[in-house]
Amino acid sequence: MDFPIARQLFYREINQPDGSIDLAKAALYMALEEYPNLEPEEYLNALDTIADEVRSRLPAQNYPLRIIQTINGYLYGELQFAGNDVDYYDPRNSFLNEVIDRRTGIPISLSLVYLEVAQRIDFPMVGIGMPGHFLIRPDFEDAGIFVDAFNGGEILFPEDCQARLSQIYGQPMELQPTFLAPVSRRHFLGRMLGNLKAIYLQQGDAVRLLSAIERILLLFPDALGERRDRGILYYQLGRLVEARHDLELYLRNAPNAPDAARIRQLVDRLDRDM
Which pTM value belongs to this model? Predict the structure, then answer.
């Protein structure tokens, strides 16, 4: 592949069965494109150190709630990790190295730190992609409890998740079972990149926006919406041949999409421009 080294490392990590993907490594390889001098091993060691400190604080009776309370006490009490509600859309909140260095982030990046620490103390947890707010929970059947890594490791029950969802959307929301289903590791990474995509779109940063979309497509090659978005971005960047390829592929596979007529007009314009 004609990719920079960071992209090659990311692709190599995700190009294996989902359960074998190392989330921390993949996230650090995502960050490596933005921070070329980053040493991934340094941050993996930092996570190891945090986990060692948590392990040394575990009580003799390691019930799930006590383990969670111990993690919370160290991460949020001693290390003072906290959700960044002052500058939520700062892209640094989505890069694992920055989250570890600055001890602040958004729900999914703080969840990643939490998951990695829990995994290292043999207390596996999984990500929960609730709309509007990412959560985690212990990885055993009928756990019944959820952890909000953005809000100090607050322990939530399904009723709390219902209330949190309604609060986020500003209206009563019905909690669907799928809202509390675990996400795959690929979807975890895709959601991180989706956050960056939204930020760079808002900032008008075409180069970084393209980088985010390209990596989403490495995760999900058949994601037609991402293919369409990349085609439009290629057009805006003057990369007309690549734009036409992506947009024509989109139309072949989604000929009846709501925006198909608009995309056909863009392809026609491309034909005139080329």
Answer: 0.94
Sign of the CA dihedral with 56 first, then 98, 43, and 148 last:
positive
Q: In this structure, what token pair is assigned to residue 188? A: 């975890």
Token pair listed for 146: 């959820």
pLDDT, tens only, 86-135: 999 999 999 999 999 999 999 999 999 999 999 999 999 999 998 889 99
Closest-CA residue to 212 (of 5, 28, 7): 7
pLDDT at 1: 52
* Contact (CB, 8 A) for 107 and 149: yes
Residue with tokens 């941050």: 43
Distance CA 24, CA 111 (A): 11
Residue tagged 């007309």 (tokens): 240
Residue 103 CB: number of other CB atoms within 10 A?
16
The residues with which 182 forms a beta bridge, in sequence order, are 128
25 neighbors 119 (Cβ within 8 angstroms): no
The one-character DSSP state at 149 is G
- Reference 130, options 75, 62, 96, 180; nearest CA is 180
